[in-house]
Automatic annotation (TrEMBL):
InterPro entries: RNaseH-like_sf, RNaseH_domain, RNaseH_sf
Classification via PROSITE patterns: RNASE_H_1
Protein name: RNase H type-1 domain-containing protein
Domain RNase H type-1 stretches: 23-95
One term of GO molecular function: nucleic acid binding
Organism: Lithospermum erythrorhizon (Purple gromwell)
Length: 95
């Protein structure tokens, strides 16, 4: 036999604080893009809250300026972050 009772709302802050702590796990996204007459590309580095490192190197099949390549790197990095379900992100870019 199990007895279940509904706790008062005074018990809720502990649960809320736990949920906030889990949700505030910060991911770090670093993006860098470069363009020259020989082509354009970008590097994406993503660090998880647990310290896992995910690296991507992108090569673009279009001519672009440095800022455009940086924007593409950021867009691709944000897609990657979204795929992992990250909620809190610190982003670093030179663009």
């Amino acid at each position: 036999m199990v007895e279940c009772t509904h706790g008062s709302t005074e018990d809720a802050p502990e649960l809320v604080n736990l949920v906030e702590a889990i949700e505030q796990r910060v991911w770090f996204l670093y993006v860098d893009g470069a363009s020259n007459p020989g082509g354009s590309g970008a590097d994406i580095l993503l660090w998880s809250p647990e310290g896992h490192k995910i690296e991507y190197a992108l090569s673009f099949a279009f001519t672009a300026k440095n800022n455009e390549v940086g924007n593409e790197a950021l867009a691709n990095g944000l897609s990657l972050v979204n795929a992992f379900g990250a909620k809190h992100i610190h982003i670093r870019s030179d663009s």
